[in-house]
Amino acid sequence: MAAQLTLSVDACPAMSSAQVLTAQSCKGEVIRSCLSYQYETCRRMAVRHITTLLLCVIWGLPEATPDVICDNSNPCPFTGAQDLSVPTEYSSQGTGVLNVTLTVDLTPHTVDWLTIHRRTYNGEIPGPTLRVRPGDKLYIKLNVTLTVDLTPHTVDWLTIHRRTYNGEIPGPTLRVRPGDKLYIKLVNNLRPDNLVRERGHGPISPNITNLHLHGMHVSPKEPHDNVFIEIGPGSSYQYEFHIPDDHPAGTFYYHHHIHGNSHFCVGGGLVGFIIVEDDVTTMPPELSAISCPLNCHKEVQLAVGTNFRYRFLPTDPILSYSNLQKDLGDPSR
After folding, report:
1. Any idea where the Plastocyanin-like domain is (predicted)?
2. Is this structure's pTM higher than 0.90?
3. Is residue 202 within 8 Å of 257, Cβ to Cβ?
4. pLDDT in tens, 256-280
5. Which long-range contacts does 249-252 make (Cβ < 8 Å, 24+ apart)?
6. Which residue in 58, 233, 272, 292 has a CA-CA distance of 20 to 30 Å to 163?
7. What are phi and psi of 267, to 5 degrees?
8. What angle do CA 242, 243, 249 make, to 5 degrees?
9. 216: Cα separation from own chain's centroid
10. Domains, the chain, ranges and CATH?
């Protein structure tokens, strides 16, 4: 069975604040690297009297102001204009079958003095080249790492700290097809705390986590979708999800599912989408025009709440998001 699993890794978001840096090698070949270099960072560096930004060409940068130095007249002296590495190549080599493992992870890449972190396949940019022939079978085992951590998010003047997957709210979107196998390594980077861990009335530590594929038709046993698994601070767990061949298409979501703290964590950001794709030719034209894989990017309003107040028993004290964060020692700014 040919697995066609892909992961929607948006390494290059809309270029409202991020800039696509374009470097030219002296051979004249254009290499585009989505470094998401912030314009405001460029301004701050110039204000600090750094006379050279060590950037070759800045594509899409707003019209230069007196305190911004951006020279694109001669790209060759730019020492960071390095050729991209030749990707690893995997080939079916005439056997008609190609088995490949792709691991998606956040990996560091250094150009001169600048180190950036990007989500990659097997640590390479670009990822491995897969070489097949018409009629071949391609089997891809996709490994995904989701890291749970406390990350700051700023909206206008307000900075809040939330538990996230890979620093994003919502977490990365995962795309699968019926019959695929999805391997997710869940890493808990949260710190230990002194809140209770016993079951009963009242919340338990939100720094314990696990993973649930909401609405998916997958096994509830380990190492699959067992919602009673507990992954403590500093620990990790390797999940394995087998998507049935007859799984219905649709948009589902994955989220934190520890009983006793799920409201706090899911409402704060530990949630992401998983899309089960189907063959676009099996749907009526009117439906396929607004469906994946040809048209997946629809604006969806997502409310991530933080203002909940509740109690487990009438005699219990009222709980709130902010009070629980204080008990955990989360940063207030």
Report:
1. 164-194, 208-279
2. no
3. no
4. 998 888 888 888 889 999 988 877 6
5. 249/178, 249/276, 249/277, 249/278, 250/215, 250/275, 250/276, 251/275, 251/276, 252/213, 252/214, 252/215, 252/216, 252/276
6. 292
7. -65, -25
8. 170
9. 20
10. 136-328 (2.60.40.420)
